[in-house]
User: What shape does this take?
Amino acid sequence: MTIVQVDHVTFGYGVDLLFEDVCFTLAAGERLALVAPNGQGKSSLMRIIASELQPDEGRVLMPRSMRVGYLHQSHEPDPSGTVMEVLMKPFSAAREARHALTEAEHGAATGLPADLDRLAHAQEHYQRIGADGVEREVSTIATRVGFSDADLERSVASLSGGERGRLQLAAVLAAKPDLLLLDEPTNHLDIESTEWLEGFLRGFPGAVVVVSHDRAFLDATCPRTAELGLFRFRLYEAPYSKYLTLREEDLARERREVELQRAEIAKTEDFIRRNLAGQKTNQAKSRRKMLDKLVRIERPEDIWADAKKLGMRFAPGRRSGEIVIEAKGLGAERGGRRLFQGIDLQVRRLERLAIVGPNGSGKSTLLKRLAGLGELGDEGEVRLGTNLDMGYFDQHLESLDPRRSCVEQIRAVRPDMVVDAARQYLSRFRFFGDDAFRAVGSLSGGERTRLALARLLLVPRNLLLLDEPTNHLDIPASEILEEALANFDGTVLVVSHDRRFLDRVATRVFHLDDGVVTLYPGTYSEFVARNRRPKVEPVVVAAPTAAPVGKESHEERRKRSREEERRKKRVADLERMIAESEATLTTLRAELTEGYGNDWAKLAKRAEEERVLAAKVDTWTEEWMKLSEEFA
Assistant: This one.
């Protein structure tokens, strides 16, 4: 059943038209990716659907009872409450029951019969309305986007910008809307939380519209893709990667149609010229009338063409020494919490290292330490190699002065560059005309990121340390950066939650989690294949080594043999349990993908079953790997 109809919507700011005649419908259970370069109007269309903006023409139709959950980048949660209070705000009955129960618990400390009776009534009411279930569901969502149990009682005012972004996402998801509008939902998530969100959305019973620069996320969540162009709105029944192929086929076909029509027009005009005053005058006049009525086919609009013109090329630097970074015994604490300790790492010339791990594991802190930007009290030593020209990209863009213009920021790196040369250079990064004189504080997130990259590329480098460089970039800019890094003749260390980007850039993976560090050779996908749900293969058990004569008794040999048989049986049992459970997980995830209409209880039950079983598989797999190593 259709629950949203976008009907011939047109919108712009003043004389600047963003899009026109946008039409599509959404049914419960449908998920749509909305794609276009930055500045094309994606967020404006989302605000129109959410009734925060009025279209210039057209309308958006939906039932009056429709509950809309809208995640957008400019919204800030109420700073006056705690994390849990923000999450529970839509659930007034459960919130009031919790408040009454808390007061009754305090009052029962008197031990008086009336106060104890009041506590019993509060507990009964709390259970009867299902407030405990609501709080459990809300807490689960908060945990899956990166909050600990202790974080739930933190004040919103104490949260960082990234934590507030995750809180806003959790609040939108927990409210159980009928329509989800998600504008860059993965910006502040780590990879694990992003993958959880993918599963959540596949099982979500309502409709979903997603704007994201994360290509893997779009492919995993949205079977439909809509391209928002100035003169044309294209809708494809395909995920993002397939959409790219289909749109190229459409553009090629439409260009052929334009050329064929132009050739036919030229042929007809030639006939008219040659015969207007001759024997075929009537035919020539008839064809001229036909041409006058002919609707000319416009050359198809390629909305990505200008976005792909970003001039991102790294200037070749000098050759560095073979050992680029040598780190020993690195340790760090932030906010009274130990992030990591005892890290030893050597990075060699031309290596490309991805640093991955959950939010809060210390990835950015480690990257700063390797860049020589540690804080007082940090442990260990970092030695940089010879002939290094290092460039560091900070995800918070703290090197940019919000009061200075783009031109001034470029000339701060290259004082010898005159203003006209700086403007020309900035045009390579899509700062045209007077945009070059705009203050940094007036720029969007994507524009600030492009400016920071422009500064980074301004001088030759042979070592790059990049902290979330694709945040706020649109998809073409991310792909151009990937290409530039692929052609970069130097060493790269990168922190990113963009899996496609990591796959293209990195050849080694440094995994950091709860202070435990592991280094893996290969791409990010190879790291995932090796460490997430590893495929169970037959274990080759090494033959026991013969005991030295006189050193091992018959009884000891029997005991050792029984122990090995017990372990072999446990390995076989684990292989069977993992295989059976993986099959069950596949079925559960397929059911979650199909959805359960508006049966939230059934959806929550299935999601919890999937979570519990996945945790068991993780535990069994760890045990299987440990036993396998003992046999090896």
About this structure: Residues 554-594 form the longest helix (41 residues). The longest strand covers residues 2-13. Residues 554-631 form one domain.
